[in-house]
């Protein structure tokens, strides 16, 4: 009952704030699409949206578990439609803003009196500042699932102002981070509210440095050339909420905005690996469990899990006459590739399977996602050792997500995953970005 009431209030607030944007638009999109490229220097995934008035393109590092959009408001923020959120306003409560303040060097974007603030987080470096909550125009392309279509606009998209120094460690040319996490003001919820579609989104990261991957907001189809609807081949597993925030700065009692799944065991080459199962669940302090991250380029395993998996893999590889060679940082386990066949699913090495809620629910990681080619004759397992007391035991990183479709369904609290699309003769760089508007 209490929940329903709260939800009702939230919905009212959302409608109230978003109605100006709806009023201007007769066209209501079913889904939206944004491109994602991979930055070669940092291995970060970068997207681009348009923001402000007049609109400017804004490049952002994609942070799957990020709480909201934050951009650098210190440098070159010019907009006639920038609205700071006044203390005590509904926008402040939607943003779960923590505080209310004045700013003496303004007024300008990021520095106004009587505004509420949140903590924009550079999750790559683990640095957070405090930043004004604000609203401005955001515009992206709609999609029918096959091509981008008409451009649509959210007139008062809620975000936070970061500083120029908070950009340190992020890819060249980016102006902030795009949070896709499970908060009311992250992209998935704001877009879903603005256009009244279900709270679902999907990411499909490209392994290519040249061709874009794609993020969809809203329901499928998610069509990749040659006419493969990747939304049709998903396996589902529940999403879990970590009760303790994993952000760089947070207030007590805040839950994590990141996406956790229930990995129950790990197989290497069809054999279960012995693991300390305690590490696989989230305890009351928010420690343990498995999350999915786009800001970590490679999967990170707690040290005992790492050892168990890499030993099993090395044994299997040795049985196939694949020779281990010296480690190449940041990896520990590398092989001479001269004895390794290439297949449609990447290098032919034993697959690594993440076993979810039951034995039939497997996320299979084949060579294309498990191995990284570091030189002409050396391949390394693209997993790194996370040490003995990490906050989260398993962090599934970017290399393991590429050319997989992942659909996050916030309403049903479940993840749909495809395993590699290479087996279906397509990749995440096969969305047709030619507009048919
Ligand atoms: C904020 O208010 C103070 C007075 O309380 C004033 O000196 C200052 O100029 C104001 N700053 C802005 C950004 O309006
Ligand atoms: C398993 O992990 C938990 C949590 O880190 C630890 O307390 C426990 O001692 C471990 N058990 C074994 C058998 O290593
Ligand atoms: C591995 O190499 C040994 C010796 O060269 C050979 O006898 C064996 O058949 C090879 N095994 C496989 C699986 O290729
Ligand atoms: C890999 O194996 C080939 C063929 O046996 C050999 O020529 C090459 O030097 C090896 N490379 C490394 C890095 O060990
Ligand atoms: C991509 O979409 C455009 C616009 O609908 C279409 O003309 C073109 O043939 C498509 N490309 C491919 C490779 O199907």
UniProtKB/TrEMBL annotation:
Record bears the keyword Secreted: yes
Entry annotated with the keyword Glycosyltransferase: no
One Gene Ontology molecular-function label: aspartic-type endopeptidase activity
Signal peptide: 1-23
GO cellular component annotations of the record: extracellular region; Golgi apparatus; plasma membrane
Predominant place of localization: secreted
Record family assignment: Belongs to the peptidase A1 family.
Keywords: Secreted, Signal
Domain Peptidase A1 residues, every copy: 45-418
Record's protein name: Peptidase A1 domain-containing protein
A Pfam family it matches: TAXi_C
One GO BP annotation of this record: proteolysis
Domain of life: Eukaryota
Compartment(s) of residence: Secreted, Extracellular space
Alphabetical list of PROSITE patterns matching this protein: PEPTIDASE_A1
């Amino acid at each position: 009952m209490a929940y329903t009431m709260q939800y009702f209030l939230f919905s009212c607030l959302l409608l109230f704030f978003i109605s100006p944007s709806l009023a201007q638009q007769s066209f209501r999109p079913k889904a939206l699409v944004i491109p994602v490229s991979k930055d070669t220097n940092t291995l970060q995934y970068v997207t681009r949206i348009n923001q402000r008035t007049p609109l400017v393109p804004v490049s952002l590092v994609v942070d799957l578990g990020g709480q909201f959009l934050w951009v650098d408001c210190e440098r070159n923020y010019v907009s006639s439609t920038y609205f700071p959120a006044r203390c005590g306003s509904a926008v402040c409560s939607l943003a779960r803003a923590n505080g209310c303040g004045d700013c003496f060097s303004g007024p300008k974007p990021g520095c106004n009196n009587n505004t509420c603030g949140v903590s924009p987080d550079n999750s790559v470096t683990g640095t957070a500042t405090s930043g004004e909550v604000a609203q401005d125009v955001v515009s992206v392309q709609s999609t029918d699932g096959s091509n981008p279509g008409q451009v649509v606009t959210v007139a008062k998209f809620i975000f936070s102002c970061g500083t120029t120094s908070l950009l340190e460690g992020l890819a060249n040319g980016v102006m902030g981070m795009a949070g896709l996490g499970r908060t009311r003001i992250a992209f998935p919820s704001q877009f879903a509210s603005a256009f009244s579609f279900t709270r679902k989104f999907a990411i499909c990261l490209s392994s290519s440095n040249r061709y874009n991957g794609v993020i969809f907001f809203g329901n499928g189809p998610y069509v990749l050339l040659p006419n493969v609807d990747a939304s049709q081949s998903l396996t589902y597993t529940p999403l879990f909420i970590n009760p303790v925030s994993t952000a760089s700065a947070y207030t007590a009692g805040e839950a994590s905005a990141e996406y956790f799944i229930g990995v129950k065991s790990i197989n290497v080459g069809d054999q279960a690996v012995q693991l300390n199962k305690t590490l696989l669940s989230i305890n009351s302090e928010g420690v343990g469990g498995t999350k999915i991250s786009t800001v970590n380029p490679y999967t990170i395993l707690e040290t005992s899990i790492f050892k168990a998996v890499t030993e099993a893999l090395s044994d299997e590889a040795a049985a196939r006459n694949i020779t281990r060679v010296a480690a190449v940082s940041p990896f520990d386990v590398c092989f001479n590739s001269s004895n390794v066949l290439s297949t449609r699913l990447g290098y032919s090495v034993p697959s690594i399977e993440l076993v979810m809620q039951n034995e039939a629910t497997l996320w299979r990681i084949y060579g294309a996602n498990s191995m990284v080619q570091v030189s002409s004759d050396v391949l390394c397992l693209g997993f790194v050792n996370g040490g003995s007391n990490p906050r989260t035991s398993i962090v599934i990183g970017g290399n393991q997500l590429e050319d997989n479709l992942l659909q996050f369904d916030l309403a049903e609290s479940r993840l749909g995953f495809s395993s590699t699309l290479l087996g279906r003769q397509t990749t995440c760089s096969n969305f047709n970005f030619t507009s048919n508007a």
